Amino acid sequence: MSDFIEKAEELALSGKFEEALAKYGEAIGEDPADPLTYVGKASILKALGRYAECADCMDTAIRILPEWKGADVDKASDLASMLLVLKAEAQLYAEKPEEALLTVDEADKIREADAASLVVRAQAYAQQKKYEEAGNCLYRAEEWCFLHDDAMLTQIWLSKVHIAKESGKAFAPPYAAEVYKSGNWRKPAGTGEELFERGNNLRGEGLLYDALRYYDACLAAGPENRALVLFFKGIIFEQLKNFTEAYSMYSDALAAGPAPEDELKIRVRWMNAKSLRL
């Protein structure tokens, strides 16, 4: 590592971004063929809100990467894909979702889509207010984490909550159903009471398939009020227009011996679902 880069990193850690930027400029003057120097400069430009320049820096890093003497041939394509995703992030900060999507397309041509590129793609769709497409990407990203590496799960969860709130309606994109059916998701843990409460919260946030996961885990844990958990599962299936499954849940809820104060509301919904099922 050159002295210029080391000093630039020290300045950046101290919040002295303009000075750090100048040092990266000196480092580039010393060795203009090192793509990682441009990546460092891009991170400073991003911190300064200069997103177009940040994207340009990433472009330069990607362009010179094949000729970089420090490149590992086996890992060069992975690095190029990662840099394209970082470039797309900068384009999102600049509120250019169309450009970001094109950049992510480039990344995915180099390497199959992973959680990072799927999250960026989801955010681009969300900026375009294409919430179903955004949701599909987030649930694909969650599935990728389950199958490969769960490092981004927290970010994905937060993105789901944010986009569900922004969409203003139940958040149940088609791929959420696929993931729920496949079981390719981390199984919730906790007591029956904790799982029930979390399921209720997720249902309130509009994350219907996530709520179903917690209700399923709650039922497996042996809840105190099994009938009520089944009832809430039935409500979700009603929201999903799956009246056959809703009818089944309400039937199970009635068979579970609900409390007198719950039985009437369960029976009313049971009758409604019975009339609407195919």
Question: How would you describe what is shown here?
Answer:
This is Tetratricopeptide repeat protein. There is one protein chain. The protein is mainly alpha-helical and about 280 residues long. It has a domain at about 185-278: Serine Threonine Protein Phosphatase 5, Tetratricopeptide repeat, CATH 1.25.40.10. About 75% of the residues lie in helices and about 0% in strands. Helix 4 runs antiparallel to helix 5, helix 11 (about 190-205) runs antiparallel to helix 12 (about 210-220) and helix 13 (about 225-240) runs parallel beside helix 15. It starts with a helix and ends with a helix. The model has no long low-confidence stretch (mean pLDDT about 95).
Task: List the topology elements.
Layout: H1 3-13, H2 17-30, H3 35-47, H4 51-64, H5 73-93, H6 97-110, H7 115-127, H8 131-147, H9 153-167, H10 174-182, H11 192-204, H12 208-221, H13 226-239, H14 243-255, H15 260-276
